[in-house]
Protein 1
Amino acid sequence: MSAPPKAPGPAPEPAAVATIRDLLSYRIHRLANALSRGAALRYRQEFGVSLMEWRILALLGGFAPLTLRDLARESGLDKAQASRAVKALVERGLVERAPGSTDAREVALRLSAEGARVQEGLMRAAREREAAFRAALPEGSLAMLEEAIRLLTAEARRQAALVDQGPREPG
């Protein structure tokens, strides 16, 4: 029989990290999954799009035209995932392809008129969710959360850069 989940509470000190459930990165990952799950269910039910498709529509709605490479980078998807999602959106008439403005081999992606209509509804739903999340935070904690996200993002990038540099030779 497995142990019951721990009740949420303050993060343990690093020396007190006994299991994966105590790791800050794991707890943030679980939060991100919960946020994504709720969004995915709502966007699928109300608009018939997956979370991946929603991200692509939202990015194209705000920043089109985008190439597939730019769209993959901005959405955090690998190029193959982004390509499959874009193909499905093109087939449904929500996204249009056009020759790139600087390189004829590249394809510029943008929303169709129907895609823009769906994207507007998706953004309305996203703003409603955002307002609910912000309202759930006690006064003054949003600024602290924003700063914590900024600091953790910078540290995560710093650590990733160290790994990208490869192992160091012993001195």
Protein 2
Amino acid sequence: MPHSDDWQYDPILERELTTRRPAGGMIQAVEIAQLPSSEWIINVKVSWRGDKWLNVCLFEQPTLKTYKRLSSAVRHVVLDYGYEDDHIRLVPDKQCSNKLAF
């Protein structure tokens, strides 16, 4: 994930990944990226929305869902989204100095 102001992913509501996933719809790839604030966000590629990265937003609001710890984001992807078939790409922010965020 680029660390400039010109990157833009499309949003996907968390409910679309859980309760409203289409029949046969799959999560194809996951990356967990760290923001400069040291919080983590989840980005996904899904089979029913084409081949582009999507920012996971809150269940009913197009606001980024953030996590204070990396372990919480990973647990959420595996347990709540049921993604355990492939790798999860991690994108840490090199300028973050908060070691507790890991």
Protein 3
Amino acid sequence: MNEITPPATFPYQPISPARRKRKQVLGAAGTVLGLAAGAFLGKWAVHAALGGPEDAGRYKLVPPASFQGLALQESGPRVDAIKQGQGTPKKGTTPVAVVYADPSGTAQLVVSGAAGTFTDDDPGAALTRGLHDMGVNGAVTEDSGAPAGGAMRCGTVPVGAEQLTMCMWADHSSLVTVTVPVENKPVALDALAAQTRALRGAMEVPAGS
């Protein structure tokens, strides 16, 4: 949700501790998501020009305008925080940073990642190592079941005093992190995994389409 800044003619109003904490958590979560994608892209982008599997770069990422009753948001403070965490786009990749919100405008899913031509031999192993490096306890292997192949992993990473549940998929065309906003009610890993699998099926389309 966008926060409205009062015009300069309004008297100064200090930010409440609760509001300040929410902004700090939002920014921290956005940075975590951006860095999560960036850490893996830093490796995979290096190999993008070295040739590889014939399916490398076969798909692109096109976030649908709506998903399971949620509306696409491509701008706003949360999206800005994710982009800041992602940093400068890696050469040969197309970054994605979007939010899916309910009819009230409240974010329900946060998506960060990139499309490109990747050649990693074992995306699943790379995801598991990366998630554990981020502090995830007991990363869960999930069958992505997508035509693009690759792998999906889910886990929960600490963000301050909160817990951020996330799923990541990776293949030879994309790397994407999906999570529920850290300030929302926690969701079960299998529930987020099901949403992530469905979103991947809607979002990852043939590059020539």
